[in-house]
Write a structure and sequence with these properties.
A hairpin with a 2-residue loop joins β2 and β3. The chain has two domains: about 130 residues, no CATH class; about 160 residues, Reverse transcriptase/Diguanylate cyclase domain (Alpha-Beta Plaits, 2-Layer Sandwich), CATH 3.30.70. The chain is an alpha+beta fold and about 325 residues long. It has nine helices and eight strands. The protein has a six-stranded mixed sheet with strand order 2-3-1-6-7-8, sandwiched between helices. The protein has a two-stranded antiparallel sheet with strand order 4-5. The relative contact order is 0.12. It is elongated. α1 crosses α3, α2 packs across α3 and α7 crosses α8.
Length: about 325
Amino acid sequence: MSVVNIIQDAWPIIILSFLGLSGIVGLIALVSPKLFAMVAETGGLWITPPKNSSVVESPIDIDQFVIRNSRQFGGLVLIVVTYLTLFFFGRIDPSWTPAFLLLVLGYSVLLALSGLIELGGEVSKIEMQLADARTDALTGLANRRVLDDELERRLSEHSRKGSAFCVALLDIDHFKEINDQHGHLTGDMVLTQGVADVICRVKRTMDLAGRYGGDEFALIYPASTLDEASIAIQHLRSEILKTSLPLENGKISITVSVGVAQAAAGDDVAALIGRADMALYSAKKAGRNQAHRHTGKSCEPIALPTTALPAEPATLSIVASGFAEQSEA
C-alpha cells in the first residue's frame, strides 16, 4: 500500500480527530473559563512568568482577559465544529456554506472588537496609573521619582555633551509655623495655590518642576548657565512673594528661600543636590526670603535681576527642593 493510499484512508480519521479535539477545547472554554485558561497556557498559547521570575510581567493580566472572553470563544468554536462535522457527514446543504462563513466572520469581528475595546480600557487604566505614579497627588507637579530620573538623564547628557543645566532647591519659610498656627488645610493651600500654581504659571515650557518632599520643591533648568538660572529663580521667588492667600481673619503672605547650583564635571545626583542644598542653607542662615547660589567653590547671594529673563532654551527644567513658608508673624 502506497503512502498516498494510507493518507487517503487516514484523512477522515485525522479530520474527525481534529474536530473532536477542537470540540473538547470549545466545550472547556464554554463551561469552565478558568480550566480553559490553564489548558491554553499549558498548551503554550502564552507564557506567564513565575512569580519569582526576573521577567517583567505584562501590566495586563492575560489570564483574566482570557477567562473573561473564553465563553464567547468557546461558543464560536463549537458552532464551527458542529457545522463542519455535519458537513463532513453530508447532513448540511453545501449551499449554506457562504452564509455560514459570513455568520462566523461577523461573529469573529464582534469578538475581536469587543476584545480590542476591553484592551483599550485596560491600556487607559495603565496610562492613568503610570501618570499617578509620576505625579504628586497634592500639587499636581512631578514627584521625587521623576525628578531623580530627570537628574540622572541630564547628568548623563552633561557627561557626554557638556550640556549645561542647573538645579534649584526651594524651601517655604516657616512652613511648620503656618501648619501649627493656621492648620494643615491652610498649609496645603500654601503648597498648592501659594507655590505650585505660581511655579506652573512662571516656569518655562521646558522646565521640570516637582515636589521633592514635604514643603520642598525642585526645579531643573537644562541648557542654562548659573547666571541664567539665577535670573529665572529670582523671578520665580519674587512672583511667590507677590502671592497672598486669604484667611478668615486676614491673609497670609509667602516667602521662599532658594539654593541654586550648576552641574559640574564628575557630578552625580548627590553631589549636585548637595551643592544646591548648601546654597539653600546659606540663604536660610542669612535670614531667609532670599536666593543664594553655589559657584562651585562657595555660596553667594543672588542679586535681584536687572535684565530680562533669558529666552526659552531648547531644554529647560527647574528643580524645586523645598519651599519655606512665612507666616504673617
